[in-house]
User: Fold this.
Amino acid sequence: MKYLKHFTEHSLYEAYLVGSEFPETEGKPTVQFCKLENEVHYNKYIPSSYNLLDILYANANGEKKVDSTILDPSLGYTPIGLCVAGTGFFGADEKARWMSLKYMDCDTPETGSLTAQGMNWGNYGTDITTIDNIQTTHNGGTYNGYFTVDYYDSSPQTNKIPSIFNENNEWNTSILGAVNQYAVTDIQGREKTDLILASATSQSTWMTDTSITNESDAGYAPAACCCARYHTTGTEVGDWYLGALGEMCMIIVQKTAINAKLAQIAAVYASDSISSLAKSFYWSSTEYDSNSVYIVNTNFGNVRRYDKYYSVSTVAMLAY
Assistant:
């Protein structure tokens, strides 16, 4: 049932949904509208909240829609992203994070590809986005620059310190502390991608060239450039970015569930979505030092540094 709260001085009403059928909204205003004379002015009051494994769709007009189910193609919507961290997961003001349904590809940067292409991170020998005082720990000490993290839906890996989740599968702030205390809490992928793009001085025409140079030397940034060039129905060039390590970790801990959902999407929209996370290693935008970057390994559930000149797969991230 619904009930209204009336603020007389402003002719303002807040509508609430209450009852056992709406436990997530009970006691919270869901819409706001204002009555002036004989007119009612309606505005959305509470922003939409998106959940893990929701699917982001868009139609030919660019109108976006989020649904937890596989929509019938006859409705005119195309899937463009899969939610890997729900609204507010990283903090009350943080948007949901969405993984692209295609791999980045230097030959088709505008559209990506269903087949993973190995690409360099670029800027070998140059610091671009390194976080100061990153801690990587293993039983209280450093361990070859990497540590393991929990699988969300599998048996925990051994000697995992720290875990990015607590027993309730929530962001484990009690262990990880503030954002950027540990590399796995770095969620500033948007900002880091902008820094990386500004460093692509040797390929300054990457935005307009047909393809993007897959080079690891200083002045090149193929992985980030491909993410920035990528766009879909309903999104524009510049909307997508190379996720920071904390954002990319979400695809480790949800791997089994993500692959199951990707398989469902691809079964209906074969030309619009990969059917699984087929590759093991994925770049992040979080540098370890001038020569290496943090990657996620979805096969073993670990995070480690990797030289920038290696060929690694890339999926883009969207904050929405």
Q: What stands out?
A: The helical segments are 173-176, 189-198, 222-229, 245-248, 250-253, 255-268.
